[in-house]
Amino acid sequence: MAAAAVAESQFHVLAVDDSIIDRKLIERLLKTSSYQVTTVDSGSKALEFLGLHDDDGQSINLVITDYCMPGMTGYDLLKKIKESSSLRDIPVVIMSSENVPSRISRCLEEGAEEFFLKPVRLSDLNKLKPHLMKTKIKDQIKQQSQRQQEEESDESDFQSPSPPQQQPQESQQSQQQQQQQQQQQQQQQQQQQQQQSNNNKRKALEEGLSPERTRPRYNGIATVV
Amino acid sequence: MERNQQLRRQLASMRQSLFDQGHLDEQFILLEELQDDANPNFVEEVVTLHYRDSARLITTIERALEKSPLDFNKLDGYMHQFKGSSTSIGAKKVKAESTQFREYCEAGNGEGCLKTFQLLKRDYATLRRKLEAYFQLARQAGPNEIACRPK
Questions:
Q1: pTM (2 decimals)?
Q2: Can you give the CATH number for the domain in which B72 is found?
Q3: Chain B residues close to A118, C-beta within 8 Å
Q4: Is B119 a domain residue?
C-alpha cells in the first residue's frame, strides 16, 4: 500500500541558483522528470521558503543548489539545512561548474546526497529518485505511526481499533481489525494527499517561479512514467 | 509545401554548420532534447535569456578592463559567471575563450586578458548573429520544425 501511495504523489524540488539560465534549465530538467519545481535565486530565499512551508502541504522533498552563489554559497545553505532540526532530513544536492575534489568531499561530508557537475543532465536527475523515495517512505511511516497513536487514544463510536501487535491466538479477529485500520489509514492518506495537492496549487511567493502550466495537471497527482 | 521543405533543408544545414565550425557543442543538442510540443520554443528562450544575461556581463568586464590596476579577482568572478552561462547553451568557442581568460586572470596577465577578451567578443557576436538568423528561419519554417538531428 505504501509503495502505491508514494508513486502517486508528486515530489517537490526546490532549486536554488543565482543564474537565471541555470534556473530555467534545471527547472525544465526537473519538470521533464515529473517533479514539481520551485526555483529561487539565493540561499536566503531558499531558507525563507523552507521555513515558510515547514508545516503545511508545500513540503519540499529535495533541495538542489548551485555551489557558487554570492552571499550564501550552496555549501552554507547545505550547512544551515543540516543544522536545522526541522529541515535536516531534506536531501540536498549540490551543483557546480567546477570540478574541485576538495569541494566535492567537503559537501558530501557535510551531508549532501550527490554532487552534480554542470551542465546537469537528465541522467544525473535519475540519481535523485532513491533519495526522494527514502524520505517519502520515512515520512509515510512517521505519519502512519502518528495516526495509529492518535487512534489508540481516540474513543470512536464503532469498534475501537486494537493495537497492531496481536497475540497469535487472536489472529483471525486481529486481521479483520487490522484491515479496518488499514482502510482508515488509506482514506486518511488520500485525504492528506488531496489537501497537499490543493496546497501545491497555491503559488509560493518567491520570484523565479514558473507560473505556466505547460503540462496538464492531474490534481497534483503526477503521471509517473 | 516545397517552400517549407526548402526552408527546412536550409535550417538543417545552418544548424549543422554551427557545429562543424565549432561554435556549438553537444550541450545545444541537450537543449533541443528538452524541447517538445509543450515547450516548443525552449531552446530559443534559453538562448535569448543567455544573451540578455551575458550582454550585461560583457559590459561589466569591459569596464573592469579599463581600470588600472586590473582587479583580477573581480575579472575572474565575472568571467566565471559568463562562462557558466555560455556553457549552458553550448557555446563552444566562447566557452574556451572564457577558460583562457580565467587562466590569464590567475596568472595576473593583463595583456593576455585583454587579447583573449577581444577574441571572445568577436566569437560571441558571431554566434549571436548566427543563432538569431537560425531562429528567425526556424520560425518561418513553422512551429514544429526543428531541424532533424543527424542520426
A1: 0.73
A2: 1.20.120.160
A3: 84, 87-88
A4: yes
